[in-house]
């Protein structure tokens, strides 16, 4: 994509996250060689959950629920079982967050662990959630 401006500024209206990236600014005149500078454009946007898969796990086994969200800045994650927030290291669960992915691990699945879980992804621009079932 190319933007041409006679002044020292270029305006990108209705910018989308796909327009993030490196841009070259080239200034030229008839007297001296062109000067080229690279500018990095980052477009911030609220989380969009791209992956939330329900999982079947037998009693006594390890259950893993995964949630993935694209966002800039990166999303923070929270997990809920019904209305109760889950915390890492409590009640036999572990929460691992790496980049745009969060995993909820239930170490020793019991009948009470089956049901609806909610993955919440949030950043300074917004919040979204997805329902994931452990069965």
TrEMBL record:
Alphabetized InterPro entries for the sequence: Ig-like_dom, Ig-like_dom_sf, Ig-like_fold, Ig_sub, Ig_sub2, IgLON_domain
Name this polypeptide is given: Opioid-binding protein/cell adhesion molecule-like isoform X1
Pfam family, one: Ig_3
Keywords: Cell membrane, Disulfide bond, Glycoprotein, Lipoprotein, Membrane, Repeat, Signal
PROSITE patterns: IG_LIKE
Family to which the UniProt record says this protein belongs: Belongs to the immunoglobulin superfamily. IgLON family.
Tagged with keyword Nucleotide-binding: no
Chief location bin: membrane
Lineage top rank: taxon: Eukaryota
The UniProt record lists the keyword Glycoprotein: yes
A GO biological-process term: cell adhesion
Single GO cellular component term: side of membrane
Annotated ranges, domain Ig-like: 46-133
Subcellular location: Cell membrane
